[in-house]
Amino acid sequence: MTGVHAHYSALSLPAEWLIGEDMTTISYAVPDERIRAVAETLLALESRLVWIFCEREAKDGSFVLRYVFELTEMRKYLVLVLNTRMPESLVEIYPAASRFERAITDGFGLQFAGSPDTRRLFLHEAYPDGFYPLKKSIKNAPITPFTASDHTTPYEFRTMEGTGVYQVPVGPVHAGIIEPGHFRFSVIGEDILNLEIRLGYLHRGIEKRAEGCSPEKGVRIAESVSGDESVANACCYAMAVEQILSVQVPPRAVWLRAYFLELERSWSLLSDLAGMVTDVAFSTAASRLLILRETVQRVCERLTGSRFLKGIIGIGGISHDIPDDLLVEVTDTLMKVRVDLEGILSWVLSVPSVIDRFSTTGVVREPLIDPLALSGPVARASGRALDVRSDHPYGLYETHPIPPLTRMTGDVLGRFALKGDEVLASLAYITELVRQIPKGPVQAEYEVCDGDALAAVESPRGRNLCYVRICDGSIDRFALSTASFCNWMALEHAVLGNIVPDFPVINKSMNLSYAGTDL
Q1: Where does the chain hold its CATH 3.30.460.80 domain(s)?
Q2: Fewer Cβ atoms within 10 Å of its own Cβ: the N or the C terminal residue of the chain?
């Protein structure tokens, strides 16, 4: 612990503030009045604020907040723990803080002094003012929503004024079979001047639903957050619980978890690739990519009984073993998928009409990555090699890393090419795993005990973080932040200066999760 604390000496954090250190984090208790100064120092050290969440409401009416920072070349996250009644907003220092603070206000009613945006985030007008669902005084029970009236504060979109400026509202119901979200464009002609995204239509109260559940049931809740990152969220949750319980996952289970994580990444990104060429009317390529996705999902079903790999992850390992001969058989199928994909990617990237639509469209500029806490393919396609698997290695990635891939252009073309590269890399990684996978048990025994921990994984969309607190053998607090939560801000910036007809392909090039944001 001393060595890690010494690395943070540039922060001038007193040693007596040090709370502790675990596999993922090093934590400090920071006085309320010092949080802004510490945040400014962290910004000067080029740190990234990747999450703020409220752990709990204390008995004295104050709130315990946790600020999670990522520092370059530090394998552990820095967590600042704050006990406060009205914390100072950090939006001026870290713009990404805005959505985190609004989510905390919705859930707990805690106000942030100096916040430039106090609008609701995930609670819509059907919820009355003064309803804060994550407080312990609110019990898990059906609620009766009502029509918006004087009981709620109307949501106001930002407006752009000027000659010829008009608004184009899109959603929340869309023409495709997709999740709901509202996009409010301010445009002149077809040129986009501003985009504001409003989500929350899929808010299901997942964090509240987990309260009082057994740690085992929490796995099923976590994997239900977003269908195309079921394994990522289940693993993230399980890893947090395993830290609390001091569980050592058996080697074979560690290998199989990596297999399933990369399998999920493959089919999820194949879906993205198909969607992108669909949105530029290249249906022939889309059909071929969807065939590959279907092939991979059938492999998922053969291995686990679920096309979405649900039910396979458990605390202490995986729910059941996979025979070696079956692994070899399906991996041969995946090798054929990889060969086919190489040909399709080469073909698509040689078509002038595709390049014309993809190139220079929807650029995410590299200077936005840190202020907005962007991650995953969105960040890597803009030249930043941010990847939890390499920056904060976990599981098999500690000994068998996957070097992060990057593209430099930050446009739709860069994201398409990068996602294609990542599918190829994941399928190659899977092939190597099968050749070396050890034998042995896939489930460790454990006893439930109280405690708390934070874990992180690299989902198909980027950095997912999960915090779990267990009290009296049950979940007392379950908090989750998926990559989509921050990456939606990238979409608001990427469309600026583009035309409205290009919005669908820009949106699909990121393919962010509504459900994974709304929780």
Answers
A1: 1-139
A2: N
- Architecture of the domain made up of 208-485: Orthogonal Bundle (1.10)
Neighbouring CB atoms inside 10 A of 192's CB total: 22
**Would you say 221 and 206 are in contact if contact means Cβ atoms under 8 Å apart?**
yes
Where b means 16+ CB within 10 Å and e means fewer, 156-170 reads: eeeebeeeeeeeeeb
The 10 Å CB-count burial string (b at 16+, else e) for 220-235 is bbbbbbbebbbbbbbb
Q: Provide the β-strand partners of residue 124.
A: none
Q: How many CB atoms lie within 10 A of CB 59?
A: 6
CATH fold label, 1-139: Beta Polymerase; domain 2 (3.30.460)
**Surface-to-core class of residue 514, CB atoms within 10 Å of its CB (0-12 exposed, 13-18 middle, 19+ buried):** buried
The Cα 508–Cα 416 span in angstroms is: 10
Candidates 240, 177, 186; CA nearest to 394 is: 240
Range(s) for CATH 1.10.645.10 in the chain? 208-485
Do residues 481 and 464 lie in contact, with contact meaning Cβ atoms separated by under 8 Å? yes
What tokens does 503 get?
Answer: 């919005």
Instruction: Establish whether the linkage from the previous residue to 172 is cis, with ω within 30° of 0.
Output: yes
Q: Residue 102 has which token pair?
A: 């609004």
Are the C-beta atoms of 146 and 126 separated by less than 8 Å?
yes
Reduced to 3 states (helix: H, G, I; strand: E, B; else coil), residue 277 is helix
The three-class DSSP label of residue 426 is helix
| Alpha helix segments (H runs only) across 8-86 | 35-44
Q: What are phi and psi for residue 238, nearest 5 degrees?
A: -60, -40
Going residue by residue through the chain, which has 519 residues, state the pLDDT in tens, using 9 for 90 and above.
344 555 555 567 888 999 999 999 999 999 999 999 999 999 999 999 999 999 999 989 999 999 999 998 899 999 999 999 999 999 999 999 999 999 999 999 999 999 999 999 999 988 888 899 999 998 877 766 665 555 567 889 988 889 999 999 998 998 777 899 999 999 999 999 999 999 999 999 999 999 999 999 999 999 999 999 999 999 999 999 999 999 999 999 999 999 999 999 999 999 999 999 999 999 999 999 999 999 999 999 999 999 999 999 999 999 999 999 999 999 999 999 999 999 999 999 999 999 999 999 999 999 999 999 999 999 999 999 999 999 999 999 999 999 999 999 999 999 999 999 999 999 999 999 999 999 999 999 999 999 999 999 999 999 999 999 999 999 999 999 999 999 999 999 999 999 999 999 999 999 999 999 999
Cβ 112 vs Cβ 87: under 8 Å:
yes
Q: Which residue has the tokens 């608001």?
A: 492
Cα gap 514→277, rounded to integer Å: 21
